[in-house]
Amino acid sequence: MTDQVDDDGFVKVERFKYKPVTNNKKKSKKNSKYTFKDSDDWNIDDISLNLKQRKEALINSRFYKDLLVIFDEHLISTKPHDIVCYGIGSVQKSKNAQYQFVLALLLRELLKIPGTMYIFDPVMTELDIELCKLHEIEIIAENEDGKRLADKPTLFYMPHCGRGLYSNTLSANWNKQHLPNVTIIGNRFDMYVGSQLEKDLKRECPYLIPAVDILDVVLFPKEFDNNQIFSDLSIQTFPKETVDKLEPDFWLSAVPQQDA
């Protein structure tokens, strides 16, 4: 552009004219590849992408960094051969289930599980089942009500299960041989014992009452996603040295009494 000179010899300065910025929101919306899709319409790619995002959020959190320290100090030494997952829910339908499922996969990796990862929840969808098969997780064919014998060291991953289900898992292993094989990631048993009527506990979850006196409890970190997904969870183990010292009467104390 050449400068123009006026009659007095001054250079005319041509000011830039700014074009108004057009609103391209409609255009960008139209070209966006990200659209909302209801979980009812998901396929395996959709759910896999969702879990990838959940995993990134989890492993980048302060909660997970603190959790790794706890696992290193209190869980890896249990050397579980298998993992049994009860009560996670539907990964397709639930945000909580998505994060809990991701943590289960991370546990298998961290613990270098040599055996099998099992899963059961009656609300699992066909897509949930497809997802489990993709990750080589064996679906438990029938509802065991938690009563699986731990003939090898076994991690029972049971976040936010009902108290009766915890009691059932203990009942199936309620002896000196099998109880030390049981490690439970779930709600703290002492949350139930002492806070509810003993007669109700004896009827609905009798094995939790004596279990509180012999287990070791390590709490999860407190904060993650408003403390809802992993709230009140813990690692609960039954040290062999403690179990071996128990008297025969202890094992009978949990056996439900028949009403007269």
Report on the structure:
The chain is α/β, with parallel strands linked by helices. The chain has a single domain (46-253), classed as Rossmann fold (3-Layer(aba) Sandwich), CATH 3.40.50. Helix content is 35%, strand content 13%. The protein has helices at residues 25-31, 44-59, 62-74, 95-110, 126-134, 163-171, 198-204, 208-211, 240-243, 248-252, and strands spanning 4-5, 11-12, 82-86, 117-120, 138-139, 154-158, 182-187, 216-219, 233-237. The strands form two sheets. It has a seven-stranded mixed beta sheet, with helices on one face. β4 (117-120), α5 and β5 form a beta-alpha-beta unit. α2 crosses α4 (95-110). The chain starts with a strand and ends in an 8-residue tail after the last helix. The model is unreliable at 8-18 and 25-34 (pLDDT under 50).
Provide key terms for this protein.
260 residues, Rossmann fold, 7-stranded mixed sheet, 9 strands, 35% helix, 13% strand, globular
Strand-helix topology:
Elements: E1 4-5, E2 11-12, H1 25-31, H2 44-59, H3 62-74, E3 82-86, H4 95-110, E4 117-120, H5 126-134, E5 138-139, E6 154-158, H6 163-171, E7 182-187, H7 198-204, H8 208-211, E8 216-219, E9 233-237, H9 240-243, H10 248-252
Helix pairs in contact: 2-4
Protein name: SRR1-like domain-containing protein
Domain SRR1-like: 72-236
Organism: Mucor circinelloides f. circinelloides (strain 1006PhL)
